[in-house]
Amino acid sequence: MSSRKLPSFDELPKFHNFSGCAWDVWGKDDELGTVNLLTEDVVKIATEEIKLGKTICLNWPVNFPEKPFYTRQTPIIHSWRKSDTINDDSISINTQSGSQWDGLKHYGIAQHKVFYNNTPSESLYRGHISIPDPGKLDPKLMKLGIHNWSQHGICGRGVFLDLVGYYTSDGLPLPYDPWTTHGIPLKDIQDCAKKQGVEFRQGDILLLRMGFIQRFSSATPEERLFFHGKPETFAGIEQTEDMKRFLWNNHFAAVASDQPALERVPPPQGIPQLHQTILGLFGMPIGEFFDLEALSKFCSETGRYTFFFSSWPLNVLGGVASPPNAAAYF
């Protein structure tokens, strides 16, 4: 859907011991990464997916999970009465406690202490952000901020692969527990796409349902309490060179799932996290905790697994991450 020919994964240079460095694809000053693929033409063509006027929310309520993982803060939502007929409320969240996009300043190349486009870790601003004058913006504060995606929008053709539906279509139970360490192999993702009749296009936004939110919603309070009391273990896509090759060579604009980390947690011993490649080298947004349950039901009923996708992250200057504010349109 775009006339520009991009290099294949194997044509990308290495960055030290990491294959697939895409920093030269959009230039040394780029802060959009693969969101660059969402051109006006790509978005315009993607709107042809809207035929019924059906809309589906893809965001888990901000309230969940009440006890976030990775020691992140609990969402605090407070309302109060200002007068008999006026109410206000306030919301305080860690932007990565629930449904989220990981931004480009969230995760870098740990061994080499750099982020996307070779941005040194020590050059990124940390601390309280105060901007009293909108006419005076500090470039250091703004570098790789989530506002870049907020002001562009993450909108285009969404492609949904229902791996839970794929695995259980013959009445069999899901062959893994989404709350335990399990790698989803690339072959299963490709077979799922084939079974659903999905063919990828450059600039697609890939959504993968692996079962976390379904599992969380059906769990007992005791199961949730036990789960939060142990080290994080999650199912997710496997950390292989072929998986990286798949994500890059299909030129997805973004990838998201219903799991807390998209990838298997923890990875096999000695294998780097895929976050380092996807965010740090590709510049590709990673979505986590997307609520894909209603989407799964509608896609199964209609046999449609592509749609118009829109997401407008919070326009926080210099922000690290954001709730996605995402929806599917059929």
From TrEMBL:
Pfam families according to UniProt = Cyclase
InterPro entries according to UniProt: KFase/CYL, KFase_sf
Query: Highest taxon of the source?
Result: Eukaryota
Query: Family assignment?
Result: Belongs to the Cyclase 1 superfamily.
Stated name of the protein: Cyclase
